[in-house]
Amino acid sequence: MSKRIPVIAGNWKMNKTSTEAKQYVSELSGMVAGKQGVEIVLCPPATSLAAVSEMLGGSDIIVAAQNMHFENSGAYTGEISPAMLKDIGVTDVILGHSERRQYFCERDEDLEKKAVAAIEAGLRPILCVGETDAEREAGETEEKLRRQISTDLSGITAEQLPGIIIAYEPIWAIGTGKTATPQIAQEACSFIRGLLAELFGEEAAAAVRILYGGSVKPGNIGELMAEQDIDGALVGGACLSAADFAQIVDFQ
Q1: In angstroms, rounded to a whole number, what is the distance separating the alpha carbons of residues 81 and 190?
Q2: What is the DSSP secondary structure assignment for residue 177, as one 8-state letter?
Q3: Buried-state track 228-249, b at ≥16 Cβ within 10 A, e below 16
Q4: Which of 10, 17, 102, 193 sits 20 to 30 Å CA-CA off 3?
């Protein structure tokens, strides 16, 4: 099997106006120009997707949405469809971020529909999974990951699986300054890969990129990326600075 190409994705969350987004992209593009051996993904808010996508047209930097609905059209006020994302040049979409699950009550059953809809529309899902502090303390991490992944990907085939990215984001490490140790992150990512092998077969599981997310910074990306089953990072706060994000991209 060919080597898994690392993915470094920056989730801006609800930050940056369209004007600020354009300035950021202009700065970052110069910093990462010619960078080989890593996929760079930017995940701006919906209001900036079209502008960022237009600026990056023809470049190697990938543009992802932070969310989408599972229907292509309809009476869903405030929502954005897969077809709308494709129309403006978006190629990837984050699904099931813990903040969506927590604040907007997204269920695994909803995410199963979203994963299928994304694949059918030609979008690459970046599926987020992870446990809370209480669940980790209770020894329920693997049970939580199994429940999320087995439901969220229940509509996906083994042939489609390599076209999906999984982001392991322990909820207790998101925006808290706490980072899972490389060993903790590796254990969880290894469990996820084993679970994918169980559900879809060894070959499909071996091709999937599994990212770590949770207080990733320039200072810890190197040791995280040294782990066998960590194929990249979904970066939050540290990606809001173009200079910091460029350092993370340059982890090698």
Answers
A1: 33
A2: S
A3: ebbbbbbbbbbbbbbebbbbbb
A4: 10
Catalytic residue among 39, 131, 135, 169: 169
How many angstroms separate the Cα of 223 from the Cα of each of 166, 172, 183, 188?
19, 20, 10, 16
82 burial level (CB within 10 Å; 0-12, 13-18, 19+): buried
pLDDT tens for 20-75 read 999 999 999 999 998 999 999 999 999 999 999 999 998 999 999 999 999 999 99
Active-site residue, 69 included: no
Write down the catalytic residue from 39, 97, 99, 131: 97
**If you compute the radius of gyration of the chain from its CA atoms, what whole number of angstroms results?**
17
- Tokens found for residue 45: 């808010």
Mean pLDDT within 181-202: 97
Annotate 201-211 with b (16+ C-beta within 10 A) or e (fewer): eeebbebbbbb
Q: Over the stretch 126-172, which tens digit does the pLDDT of each residue have?
A: 999 999 999 999 999 999 999 999 999 999 999 999 999 999 999 98
Whether 135 is catalytic: no
How far is 182 from 215, CA to CA, in rounded Å?
Answer: 12
Condensed to tens digits (0 to 9), the pLDDT of residues 65-77 reads 999 999 999 999 9
DSSP state of 55: H
Say which CATH topology domain 63-70+78-249 has: TIM Barrel (3.20.20)
Contact 249, 32 (CB under 8 A): yes
> Which residue ranges make up each domain of the chain?
63-70+78-249
The b-or-e profile of 118-147 (16+ CB within 10 A means b, else e) is: bbebebbbbbbbbbbeebbeeeebbebbbe
Q: Which two tokens stand for residue 168?
A: 């392991």
